[in-house]
Specification:
single chain, 148 residues, alpha+beta, 31% helix
Length: 148
């Protein structure tokens, strides 16, 4: 069973730091973060979501805690968080064109290797498609009217 690694207070502190650091690049968006232990692996989930529900980028970084004791759980958590923070800097520098792969892939980060993945979705359209498949006629906002 997965064991949470971040308290609500720690997650809020991380989110505040990310939103301050990347404030000029955000488009009416907010971050969420969580972390857990799955067996011997630290898994960090970071999401960037537009408040109107039309954009969601879910990112994940994972690393096994080394058996040799070279990194503690806390160090491994910090490493995954640092990787995602570094990646976000690159993502925004590249005008949001640099996306993580859909499946976990190894990424060299300093002297370590972190597994990372990402997925971009439009939850509003996903919900509308589900409603349409149920035979409903959903209202979908006109994307041309969205504020940037």
């Amino acid at each position: 069973m997965a064991r949470p690694l971040l308290s609500a207070e720690n997650a809020a502190t991380i989110v505040a730091a990310l939103e301050t650091r990347h404030a000029r690049k955000l488009r009416d968006e907010r971050f969420t973060v969580s972390a857990r232990m799955e067996g011997q692996t630290v898994v960090v989930d970071l999401s960037l979501a537009r408040l109107d529900g039309t954009f969601l980028y879910e990112m994940q970084a994972a690393k096994s805690v080394p058996d040799d004791g070279s990194l503690s759980v806390a160090d491994t958590l910090d490493l995954c968080m640092d990787f995602l923070d570094w990646y976000l800097g690159r993502y925004f520098e590249e005008d949001r064109e640099l996306l993580l792969p859909l499946d976990h892939q190894p990424h060299r980060f300093g002297e370590h290797e972190v597994l990372a993945r990402g997925d971009v979705r439009n939850p509003t359209l996903d919900d509308a498609a589900d409603a349409w498949l149920r035979g409903e006629r959903p209202e979908v906002p006109d994307p041309r009217r969205r504020l940037h």
